[in-house]
Every structure is written in C-alpha cells, then in structure tokens.
Specification:
alpha/beta, globular, Rossmann fold
C-alpha cells in the first residue's frame, strides 16, 4: 500500500469553475479562497489519515493545522527543503508527489521544481500537479493494495565508461 506522500503548494487565486465540487463554500461566499491543496486535502481527509505525509515548511504547518494529523516537515524550500524532498525521492521514501502549482505564473525557484519533477520521473514516482490528477490517483484501486514500483535499471548508466581529461591534454 502506498504510504508516503509529499505535498507542495504554490498559492494562487483560482476562480470557482462550474465543475468544481467545493462543498465547504456556501454559495455567494466572499471569504478569501483557501489554498487549493488545503481544500483538496480537507476533501480527502479520511483517505489521508492512512498515509505518512511530508511537506516543506509553511505547507506542512498549514496541512497539519487543517487536517489535525502529524505532517513530517522538511525545511522551508529556500533553506534546502526542495533538496530534502529530492533526496527522499531518490531514496524511495516518497511514493507519490502531490505538487500543485500555478502554470500561469513564472516560478522563482523553477530549477528546483524541475529537479523534483525530473527525480520523480527518474524513480517512477506518480506526480499530481492539480486536483483532478490527485483525485484520479487517490481513487485508483492500486491505492488500496500492495504495489511495487517498477524501478528503471540504471546499471549501465552507473557503469558507463567515463573518459578522464587531464590538464595536460
């Protein structure tokens, strides 16, 4: 069973769409919209209680307060949190990456985001970049059974012949 999830959010205002199911909002509510990942987590609170949850800094605190369950918190992203997440992806400690971000806004830490997405792909870790994809992942029958991730074989890459160039050449 998939147990470890990492959450990331990039705050952005998202106007209500007709197909969104925001049951906690009353019609015509003028209160500021919560971060999308918090709304998604609250909607999936019963499913999430069966998993170990990880997040960086502020996201972890927000999720912990909203869900009322412990979140293992990495450092804040600018202080090395993204690198901690990347390390845990490479070590096989994170099974799913829930990574919501605003595609309409430039990311100041774009190289870090790209590195995490690359590592998730390298180690065959499912990634949800939006609530619809996260919903599909969480409603998959594979979430309720043992699942062994097929890891790529990087043996040939690790043992490739590397030519060393010296200063004399």
């Amino acid at each position: 069973m998939i147990k470890c999830l990492y959450f990331y959010h990039k705050s952005f205002n998202n106007a209500n769409k007709k197909n969104e199911r925001k049951k906690e909002n009353s019609p015509g509510s003028s209160r500021p919209q919560k971060c999308e990942i918090i709304e998604w987590a609250l909607h999936n609170k019963n499913h999430l209680k069966n998993h170990f949850l990880y997040a960086t800094g502020t996201t972890g605190t927000l999720l912990e307060n909203a869900l009322g369950q412990p979140i293992t918190k990495f450092m804040s992203r600018p202080l090395g949190g993204d690198q901690q997440v990347g390390s845990n992806l490479a070590e096989g400690n994170i099974d799913i990456l829930i990574f919501f971000w605003d595609p309409m806004e430039a990311q100041p830490h774009d190289p870090d985001v790209r590195a995490l997405l690359r590592l998730a792909t390298v180690w065959n870790v499912p990634v949800a970049c939006d609530s619809a994809t996260a919903d599909f992942i969480f409603t998959s029958p594979l979430m309720q059974q043992e699942y062994e991730t097929v890891l790529p074989d990087y043996t040939s890459y690790l043992h490739r012949n590397i030519q060393i160039v010296t200063a004399e050449e």
